[in-house]
Design a protein that fits this description.
alpha/beta; 2 domains; seven-stranded mixed β-sheet; 15 helices; Rossmann fold
Length: 383
């Protein structure tokens, strides 16, 4: 009998971390998914094996002699897991298991596939410019993948939205052309500990590409660097490196999108940041120094994540996509109550990122204080 299990990246991240940062997505979508399918959905940490035991991340690593395990972003070599560790996983996950996961990414998806599981992995899409967050969804089942293509976001939509926001920034005087030189390049930074920049146990950053930056500085009049906003808080040494590098000019207090919109920027570089995916729709030459976070809208054989927007709110979407691998309810409603609504997913965890510079509420500084001042003026005039 098929069983459906929801999880996050349960080998890199602890149960506590996954529940804090990833399970809220499941809480929002689970009523919609459950209304479409017959099997119940259980959380990985709640299921038990035949011996009545729950999965233990700590015990899994103890089987290989590891005792010091980080709560999040634990560096694990999926190719080096022992046979004893694999056998332990098989006690919980097998060919009768359907995994619906949040931000598991390729190595874990491949491991689950090797155990015989059917896999769905959904993560927030690299493109953040729509009226709400889109998802990138992966499945290892070809029939489910083909069903999902009916809902794939058209490529033109990405270009239309990028063009709209470029015009918006132009006519709202948001493009900082006075700070930029013609024929320039832009390097977009990331946090220093992010699994998307991990290579062979090392977290990559701009310091690992000094020679490449030096060569590119011969082709472009200036190379600008926009750091991830969190870097100011936890990496003084890294910021000092950037400030002292003669081939880089640091850009502060500017929206990355406003720089992407400038015609003076000809090339955009980074390690794996999602903004490189967005930069292509601003018609920039793009270079990844490592690799994209997802292989988006590629053929099935290339571990492809499909672009999905809004339809994830509709039970009919989940029924169509899951129908090849599990029983579907006979009375699934074809209704999307949030269709056309803005920021339903964004607002839950304030996931605006660079989009905050476009939102009519977020882009007004001290919005609440401004409302209070207007209210005081209204009261004063009334009386």
């Amino acid at each position: 009998m098929k069983r459906i299990i929801f999880t996050g990246d349960f080998l890199r991240n602890s149960e506590k971390y996954n529940k804090r940062y990833f399970f809220w997505v499941f809480k929002i979508l689970s009523p919609i998914i459950k209304s479409a399918i017959s099997p119940d959905i259980k959380i990985l940490y709640d299921i038990k094996n035949d011996a009545g035991e729950k999965f233990s991340r700590e015990y899994f690593y103890e089987l290989a002699g590891e005792t010091e395990i980080k709560e999040c972003y634990h560096k694990c070599n999926f190719d080096a897991f022992t046979q004893e560790q694999i056998e332990y996983l098989k006690k919980f996950l097998d060919e009768n298991t359907i995994i619906i996961g949040s931000e598991m990414y390729t190595p874990l998806c491949d491991l689950l596939t090797s155990l015989g599981c059917k896999v769905f992995d959904f993560a927030f899409h690299s493109y953040k410019l729509f009226d709400d967050l889109a998802f990138a969804i992966y499945t290892n089942d070809i029939s489910a993948y083909e069903q999902m293509q009916k809902y794939k976001i058209p490529q033109n939509k990405f270009y239309y939205y990028a063009n709209y926001w470029k015009v918006f920034m132009e006519y709202n005087n948001m493009i900082p052309d006075d700070k930029l030189q013609d024929n320039s390049a832009l390097f977009i930074g990331q946090t220093l500990t992010d699994k998307s920049v991990e290579k062979d146990g090392v977290f990559l950053n701009i310091e690992h590409f000094e020679n490449e930056i030096k060569e590119l500085s011969k082709q472009y009049s200036k190379i600008y660097y926009i750091p991830h906003p969190y870097l100011y808080k936890n990496s003084k040494a890294h910021m000092n490196y950037v400030k002292k590098n003669p081939n880089i000019e640091l850009l502060n207090d500017v929206s990355t999108y406003s720089v992407l919109a400038s015609d003076k920027i000809k090339k955009v570089m980074g390690i794996s940041t999602s903004m490189l995916y967005e930069a292509r729709y601003f018609n920039k030459d793009v270079q990844y120094f490592f690799q994209p976070l997802f292989n988006i809208d590629a053929p099935f054989e290339q571990h492809s994540y499909t672009s999905i927007f809004e339809d994830y709110w509709n039970p009919k979407f989940w029924a169509d996509v899951l129908s090849p691998i599990c029983d579907i309810n006979s009375d699934v409603e074809d209704a999307n109550y949030f269709k056309g609504a803005s920021n339903k997913m964004r607002n839950i965890r304030d996931l605006y990122w660079g989009y905050a510079s476009f939102d009519p509420i977020k882009r007004i500084p001290n919005f609440q204080e401004a409302i209070k001042r207007l209210y005081v003026r209204y009261i004063a005039r009334k009386f």
